[in-house]
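Re: the pair you flagged

First of the two:
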Amino acid sequence: MIAGAFFTGLGYLVGAVVLWWAASQKRLATKGIGWVAFSGFAAGIAGAKLTQLVAEGWPLRLPAAAALDPRSGGRALLGGLIFGWIGVEVSKRRLGIRRSTGDLFALALPAGEAVGRIGCFFNGCCYGEKCDLPWAVYQHGAWRHPAQLYSAVTAAGLFGGLLWARRHVKREGDLFLLYLFGFGLTRFLLEFVRWRETLFFGLSPMQWFCLELIVGSVVGWAIKSRRAAEPVEAS
């Protein structure tokens, strides 16, 4: 439990440090961006906690006080992403920031996840399907895929790929679209080795969300490319 909490907290810290570093590279390390980052992380943590608690039956099957327990909830990445995005947009609107900040989070999110998933491994959450592979780990009464470690390695690889891609991507916002595509694709595949409940056609709710991310990022990239290719009319 202590190791899990340590790596989970370290994951948030690593994400914050990477975000500030990325902002410094773009000369965006300002007080306003700091508040935007804080709002995004705070809303993301709250969203992850709330989403998991609701999924576990709060407040009907769980006591209302469970929301105040730091040991409960906090591992629902889907809720964290959605609430984090809302927190960022609300903060930007209040501060009057119109510039895109998605590229900063494109690096921070996979960096933080790569470390935070190690916390998931020690906590025993987000566990894998049963298997008899040589590297299987014993969790929840059976030998299973170390899905948390798969996720950590995948997130680290995604971070490395985006770090390389940022030198070649010129348009603002494109790096974030690449992150959404990469996260959607890798998480869709990882779901097959994670324990999950299926919804339609043998796919989990998270896999359907990942498909939306993949399609949305591709459509967004196509729209931006089309607009960039359109000739500018002389006034």
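Second of the two:
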Amino acid sequence: MDIAASLPVGSVIVADEQTSGIGRHGHSWDSERGSGLYVSMVLEPHPVLTLALGLAAREALREVTSLECDIRWPNDLMLAGRKLGGILVQLHEKRAVAGIGINMLQRKFPDELAPIATSLLIETGLEFRPEDLLEALLKAVGAAVLLATPQVIEQWQNCSTWARGKTVRVDSGERLIIGVTCGLSDSGYLLVRTREGQIETVVAGGVRD
């Protein structure tokens, strides 16, 4: 992503591994050499780009593997209840740099990640090729970024089990919100109904069940 930040819109960089991979809010990202798809792309900004890329990644995975992945607000790809991949978007002047990482060929994870992370190989026993997934992903991204914000939000809500009726804990960094999800706002933020009946708008934070 650091290299991509200086490149024009339309640029795509693929890595065999990440030595400084990060997630949202500075969280670390484990990326074993040769075991996943690690790609950064330079795109035009979009009001709900992270959500659109989640839809694109989900579609690419469905096309290549026939699996129906879940998506957790705002940027996680989930499979069998564990994290399969993640998306990170950073703005640089008039460009958006999007990093997408998807676990593919890992046979195991470090002990601290094993309960919450998974790979396509672990879940299916099959070895899918990163280049096939990349081709499908680039095509899906090209279509997803053309969608208007209301279309992205509607499709995201229809594809995610986390959108409505999910009991969640949201760590915003400043406080903990506990409640049940009730869709997305018009701007793509997560809405959570607390135990007191109030609707909280989650702008940023880690969402867990």
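Residues 49-65 form the longest helix (17 residues).

-B.
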